[in-house]
Amino acid sequence: MNGVELLKKLEGRLGALRGRLIADAEMDKIIWFRAGGVAQALFQPADEEDLAAFMRAVPEDIPVLPVGVGSNLLVREGGIPGFVVRLSARGFGEVSQVGDARIRSGAAVPDKRVAALAHEAGIGGFHFYHGIPGAIGGALRMNAGANGVETRERVVEVRAIDRKGDLHVLSNAGMGYAYRHSAAPADLVFTFAEFEGPPADRDEIRAAMDAVQLHRETVQPIKEKTGGSTFKNPPGTSAWKEIDKAGGRGLMIGGAQMSPMHCNFMINTGNATGYDLEFLGETVRGRVLENSGVRLEWEIKRLGLFKPGREVDPFLGQLL
Length: 320
Description:
Helix content: 25-40%
CATH class of the largest domain: Alpha Beta
Radius of gyration: 20 Å
Strand content: 25-35%
Distance between the termini: 26 Å
Mean pLDDT: 94
Number of helices: 8
CATH topology of the largest domain: Uridine Diphospho-n-acetylenolpyruvylglucosamine Reductase, domain 3
Structural class: alpha+beta
Strand order of the largest sheet: 6-7-14-10-11
Order of helices and strands: HEEHEEEHEEHHEEEEEEEHEHEEEHE
């Protein structure tokens, strides 16, 4: 069934919600790659209570998938079944200082805003967020990091709503952090988080933020349609080095290309499809595996279903 039919089927359950419901939501309008299929339906809750009501209202056999600003997502052409939940700035976009050294942030707050508030408050250790083009919800889920600092070093506790609509408060240890990973249950939708950092001189914080920005502008294709780092760094080496050695720099498939500037960044040169992007990524993984024996792991999150006849074979980049 399409999105209109899904909402029609559930209208008796969803009528009391205060958020925004959209049938057949075009995900290429959301994700930074500007490519991919549609979500059967999208829900933007008004606030945490509205999100909990939505989770309780939707039958558990219908998938519910949270997404953020779409900076590290790849949506397959077959689209996303069920609901996508996207937190909006209206209900989850506040960030404030709590006490001398803590910051409370909604999950929809851009990482850069948290870095800016930390600078204003003289709280150190958040400069790395100035260079991460995502929102706090995604940073919490993937333990986002840059410039030698990771989210797990700053998190105190996280609020989240589960698939049954129940509220959870997780400690730093409860998030189960590892490199670019959280072991927190996949059905949790993070809503708010509290962070902490050491006191620091504002001029030193500003200098660190400027250094982060200069690095991004110098070595990353930040003006392109990209999803950020495509693959995680393998132990003992860097993803871009392995891609470069395997001849992946500048490699193109359809409208997708491994950036000539930074070959661990995949870009949409203008008309790439979700298939082009994933095909390219798997082709690069295959070449690296053959060249050096290194198995690159995706850092970009790939969502949804393959379009029939447009499936991609892992590592080989060939049709199944």
